[in-house]
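Database export, one record per block. Field names are fixed; values are copied verbatim from the stored entry.
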Amino acid sequence: MHGSALELTLVFLLAAVTAVPVFKRFGLGAVLAYLVTGVVLGPYGLGVVQDADRILNAAEIGVVMMLFVIGLELSPSRLRVMRKPVFGAGGLQVLLTGLALGGLALLADQHWKTALIIGLGLALSSTAVSLQLLSERKELTSEHGRLGFAILLFQDLVAIPLLAAIPLLGGAKDETLTWTDVFQAVGAVAVVIFGGRLLLRHLFRIVARTRMPEVFTASALLVVLGIAWFMQLAGLSAGLGAFLAGVLLSDSEFRHELESQIEPFKGLLLGLFFIAVGMDVDLDRVMAEPQLISAGVLILLTIKFLMLFLIGMGPGKLDMRGALMLGGVLWLGGEFAFVVFSEAVRANLMDDELRDRLVAIVSLSMALTPLLLIGMSQMLAGVAKRKPPSRAFDDFPDDQPQVLIAGMGRFGQIIGRMLTAQRVPFVALENSPETVDTLRRFGNARIYYGDPTRPDLLRAAGAQHVKAFVVAVDDPDINIKATRLIRRMFPQAKVFARARNRQHAWRLMDLSAEPIRETFASSLEMGEQVLVALGVPPDAAARQTERFREHDEKLLRAQYLVYDDDVAVIQTAKDAIGDLEKLLEADAGGVDARES
């Protein structure tokens, strides 16, 4: 296709919008839909797009953004807990799989250097495909999902020195890895970590004070892509830089806002990345050597599955079902293998023909994995899960919030302090960066900057796990908007909402929320103290105050039935005044009788 960029964009969007719902309808998942779309549109299919590599390079930004979002979910304390599965299970998987596949390459009369690159290149799995599959199936927090992520994280780390070692193995005189390169890489990581800690939060505080969402979005994209570009300049992985940036911001007040801003870009660009991978499947090569390519895919999947299963059952301490699922998610090849094998060609360690075969094998494994995983899940559907033995990696508390507070002004702060005193986990959203900054200085780490009327932000804050919502926003219109959104997203949720007055309370009742009038309780308390000061016995004052509370709540609900009719509202109030006077007089008479 030689049309404009707009035409190409329309083709991608139309294909994705058409394919994804169809595949999801049959339970096949979005990843497989994107891959098949790429095969159909690519140079070896209908030929709509000829330059697949160019699109693949651009779409890798989606992988960068995905790793940033994953970093936001991993605080430094969680990473410290994960070091054993990352370097233990991850290191073992790369070592064993690399040796097994490299050994087979040696038996196929490949040079030991070529065999080493083949083994280690094929040992890497696709971070993008595997994590997307786990996310679609809501298994990222499962036992095999967390172990799989640890293994993928190690693969991303080991891919950097592997790429740097290829020129050394090829003997290129001017492309050897020097101590300058090593210090440059270590220095770049240090700059990102220490510079990020000092600057990133201050940057987002300044941007948040502008109260312009588009500026915040631009700043988030600038940070993610800027750090990725900086790490690339240092010869490191752009994804590693984005991951580090996410980890640095994981315990900041802007975590959920950043996640909600990046998520739409990440989803679209990841879809484009999977389409580009599908385009890179060389159907001509597959059709020319079907037995050889099929055998290569079968060997790759079998060996990786076996190694992952053994690691899951051994060091991973998974049950059999978890170990089988771990193998089914990570047995595919990875997109980084394309880069590794291309570098090997440039270093004269393999020819173009061998590279094309390996790329076809990896691409087919990536395309087949979503479909094979569905079949495996159906086979294991009847296998019961057992609780694995406790270990440090699993014992790290998830601390899912039970309450979400929208608005942390004076009203919301008191509720937050009560929940903290009872050790009830909650998450709070506040649209004022000054308020967030002040409360954070007092040690309140559960408050985050963001607009509670945005659905993507509520999802990022974990609203789907919440048992009760508290809408404590001062502005009545924003208050109503937030309550309406919560009720639409979570129809069965329990919602308590701050009400400024009776009219506001009635509008909240229309949304099936429980209105709490902001000055009602304090006014009743003051009224009770005034009665006591005037000589009314404390117990009688308390009883009369409670009678008045019950009466007014009853009146509020009676007026709610006719609140769109001003005449009826006023008449209901007049009728209630006489009933209240009789009620209080009767109560006062009872007190006098008891005292006499």
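Remark 1: The first strand starts at residue 403 and ends at 406.
Remark 2: The chain has 26 helices and six strands.
End of record.
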